[in-house]
Amino acid sequence: MAWILLLVLIMALLLLRQSLVLVLAVATAYVHLFIANSKIEFLIQDFWFTVDREVLLSIPLFMLAGNIMSRGSIAQRLIGFMQAFTSSLPGGLGIACVLSCAAFAAINGSSIVTMLAIGSIMYPALISRGYSKSYALGSIASAGTLGIIIPPSIPLILYGIMTERDISKLFLAGIGPGLLLTFMFAAYAITANWNSQRTPFSVAVAVKSFFEGGFALALPFIMIGGIYTGWFSPTESAAVALAYALFIEFFLHRDDSAPPAPKGLGPLRQVMYYMGTRQMKPSTLLAVILETTKLLATLLPLLCIAGSLNTILDHSGIPKQMVAALTGSIENRWVLMFGINVLLLIVGCLMDVGSAVLILAPLLEPLAVAKGFDPLHFGIIMIANLEIGYLTPPVGLNLIVAMAAFKESFVTICKAVVPFIIIMLIWLVIVCVYPPLSLFLLTK
């Protein structure tokens, strides 16, 4: 009876259009009081236990680093580098778009930031070079999703927190699937734009783009290499990314449109003028910090509440009972995995990735592990399913953001991403049935 009342309460709050944070808070308090026979003060205690983790520091650091890179010149220089080496190929600019998204995803961890940073530059470039509007919109919206599977990935960090898995290993498990999806998107760029304009390869342009974008391009290798070799943890890699981004934007990347310094300036004015010619200015940095703080303020309350709900459910043994019931009724492991995939694809249509991971990861992972699936492999499967959710209505975040950013109708963008969703579904099947794709770097 208590569970029925809880379901009615949740449905009533959803019908009243209450926020997900409020719905989860009420549900968690109800479970504490009427199902687990606990005390409400333990709710606050669980909040503290959830956020009292060093790895949580990586989330605001990655978010801030990504926002700094998108407001500075790193994204533009990465695009210039990719274009220099792909312009002579069929669909070269489309390939450059995909590779730029993959490279930028590897240094910021966010799908939305990746799509906006690369898309704001690539969309007008694709249209001006004769690429169809449908391909341009679909490519940018879809390639932006690489930000949550290619490490560092904020959803993978959340998954590791909620399931208590090694986040460094989750990052390494995401490399293979991320590279495969990048290759599949690039292959589609070639086949869909075989007759597109091409530019002969120029060694001079390639060398120039390398020197302009080399510092930015080095960051993914520094971060992934550092994690893989054990030089630094995921949290430390986030700090490295932030420090490196600040160093590049404030001291290396100059605004090419800025005039040379006037003669006769004193030392202090020379420093002030020098800082004023950077792509990233102190005033811009302050705005980026405030913007990141607002984004973080929407995530942390949800994380606290989900952590408390996970704790009380685990204490009451409900997940174990659910695992025992389902594993007993479903004997075939692939039937169970098929059901989980269908569930996650539906959830991806209705919830944002962070919320889905926080709520479902602690419940679904024990089911998969009980049937013999590797927990790290299942983490990648879960994120891969939810990654497709970025492109599926009605709550596909990339669709909504692309609609606002590129001033196109929601229906137009939904149609544009259909070929890419088909590609991602094929990719999802490969990820599910071939565990070595995710685990080959973990067998050393």
Provide a descriptive summary of the structure in words.
With 444 residues, the protein is an all-alpha fold. The chain folds into two domains: 2-53, no CATH class; 54-317 and 319-442, no CATH class. The chain has 22 helices and no strands. The chain has helices spanning 2-15, 20-35, 41-51, 58-71, 74-86, 92-105, 111-128, 133-143, 154-163, 167-192, 203-229, 234-252, 267-276, 282-316, 318-329, 333-350, 353-370, 375-388, 397-406, 410-416, 418-433, 436-439. Helix 6 (92-105) runs parallel beside helix 8. It is globular. The N and C termini lie far apart (51 Å). The model has no long low-confidence stretch (mean pLDDT 80).
Q: What separation lies between the terminal Cα atoms?
A: 51 Å
Number of helices: 22
Average pLDDT level: 80
Oligomer: single chain
The profile of the biggest β sheet is: none
**Which class best fits the helix and strand makeup?**
mainly alpha
Strand content: under 5%
Cα gyration radius (Å): 23 Å
Q: pLDDT below 50 for ≥5 consecutive residues: which ranges?
A: none
Total number of domains? 2
Rough outline:
globular
> Residue share in helices?
over 70%
Q: What is the total tally of β strands?
A: 0
Order of helices and strands: HHHHHHHHHHHHHHHHHHHHHH
